[in-house]
Amino acid sequence: MSKKPIVLIIDDDPIVHKILGVWLDKAGCEVMEARRGREGLDMAVRNQPDLIMLDVMMPEMGGFEVCRRLKAEAKTSSIPVIFLSARSDNPDKIQGLEAGAVDYISKPFDLGEVMARINLQVKLKQQGDQLREYTMRLEAMVEDRTRQLIHAERLVSLGTLSAGIAHEINNPTTFILGNILMMERFWEVISEPLASMSASGSHPKIGYIVKEVPLMIQAMKKGTRRITNIVSGLKAFARQEPAVKSEVDVNECVTEALKLTRHRLKYHVRVVKNLDPLLPKVHGSAQQLVQVFVNLMINAADAIGESDGLLKITTRPESKNMVRIEFTDNGPGMPPEIKAKIFDPFFTTKPVGQGTGLGLSISHGIIHDHGGAITVESEPGKGVSFFLTLPVEKTDEDTND
Ligand SMILES: Nc1ncnc2c1ncn2[C@@H]1O[C@H](COP(=O)(O)OP(=O)(O)OP(=O)(O)O)[C@@H](O)[C@H]1O
Ligand SMILES: [Mg+2]
Question: If I label 392, which of 151, 225, 326, 366 is the partner at 20 to 30 A Cα–Cα?
C-alpha cells in the first residue's frame, strides 16, 4: 500500500490553510502548514513533501524567492511547487513558472479544479520518485553484474593458467619426490658404514655428513609435499575434474567435516551445532561440500588462534528450493579491505607455507557450480559469518510439476 502523499502549504493567509487543509485531508493527503517562507523552506527539507502549495505574496520572503531556493537545494529540488496567488496577470505567472513551479493557480480558486491539479502533480511526483528508485536499483544491479563478469573473466583466465602451471609442476615434482625416496633408501644402506668410518676418525668430515644428510632429506620431502599440496589446490581451482552430483545430506557433510577438523578445533574452538533434522537434501557433491566446510572451519580456527573461541554452525531451509548453511565465529573478524579480497585466488593473510589463499576461491567456485551462493559478513572485532545457500534436490514430484 502506498503511503499518504504529504502536501506542504506555505501561505500567510489562515483562510487558505483552513479551506485547502480540509479538502486535502478529505482527499487522503497529510497536510503540513507554514506561514512564512523561511519556515516553509525548513519544513520542506525536513519532511520531504510530495507537493508544495506556495503563496506568491508573503512578508519577509516572497514566494518566487522561496521557490528559487527550493529548486537550488538538492534535497528539495524535485518537489513540485504550485503557486497560489491573488494576482492573475500573465507576467506573474511567467515569473512563477520561470522560478521552477509546475503550475500557477489564481485566487479565488475553484476547489474542484485545484484538487484536480494537486492530484495530478502528486501522482507525477510519486511516479517520478518511483522511476528514480528503479533507475538507481537498475544501476546498482548493472554495476554488480559487471563486477561479477569481470571477476568471472579473471577467474577463467586464471583457471586456464593454473591448470597449465599445475600440469607443468606436477611432472618434475613427481620425479623429484621419487628420487628423494630412492635417496632415502640408498642412504639407509650407506649410512651405517659411513658412521663407522666416522667413528674410526679417518675422515673428520664424515661425521658431519652422517648427521646432516637425513635432515636434508626430511627438509626436501617436506618442501616437495608443500609443492604437491599447492598443485592439488591449483588443480581444484582450475576444476579439471568435474564433480558427480547426487542427493546429498548437508548435515552429514557438516558432521563429516567436523570429524576431519577435530584435531584442529578441539583445544580452543567450541563448536555449537544447530542442524535442522528435517533439512531437505541438496543436489551436489558430498566430497566437494565437505571440502568447502573444512576450509571454513579451519579458517575460523586459524582466525580464533590461541584464544578460546566459538564456532556456530546452523542449517535451515531458506525457501522451498534452497537450504541455508551459516558458519559464525567470534574471532577477530576482518576489516573491509580484507573482506573485499578473500574470494580472490591466492589471497591470504597467513604466513608463507601456512595458507595458499585458494580455499575460499575454490569454495566460491564449488558453491556457484552447485547453483548456490556464498557471502560473508564481518566487522573487525566481532567475528565473521559465512552464509551459504544450496539448491534442494528436485524430487520426481517437482519434475512432474
Ligand atoms: N573466519 C575468518 N576470520 C577472519 N579472517 C578470515 C576468516 N576466513 C577467511 N579469512 C581471511 O580470508 C583469507 C583467505 O582465506 P582462504 O581460505 O581463501 O585462504 P587461506 O585460508 O589463507 O589459505 P588456504 O585455505 O589455501 O589454506 C584468509 O587468509 C583470512 O585472511
Ligand atoms: Mg582457508
Answer: 151
Predicted structure pTM score: 0.56
Could you tell me if the CB of 348 is within 6 A of ligand 1?
yes
**pLDDT per residue as tens digits for the range 280-331:** 999 999 989 999 999 999 999 999 988 889 999 999 999 999 999 999 999 9
Q: Which ligand is nearest to the CA of 333?
A: 1
pLDDT digits (tens, 9 = 90+) for 102-119: 888 887 878 888 888 888
**Mean predicted confidence (pLDDT) in 4-16:** 92
| 313: in domain | yes
Residue 40 CB contacts under 8 Å (≥ 6 apart), including other chains: 8, 10, 34, 52, 54, 66
The DSSP element (H or E) to which 320 belongs, if any, is none
- Are residues 386 and 324 both part of a single domain? yes
Which residues is 34 bridged to in the sheet? 10
Q: Is residue 145 part of a domain?
A: no
Ligand 1, atom nearest to 358 Cα: 26
In a domain, 251, yes or no: yes
- Cβ neighbors of 78 (< 8 A, separation 6 or more) are 125, 128, 129, 132
Task: Please tell me if the CB atom of residue 384 comes closer than 6 angstroms to any atom of ligand 1.
Answer: yes
Tell which residue, 83, 125, 124, has the closest CA to residue 107: 83
Q: Give dist(CA 28, CA 22) in Å, integer.
A: 10
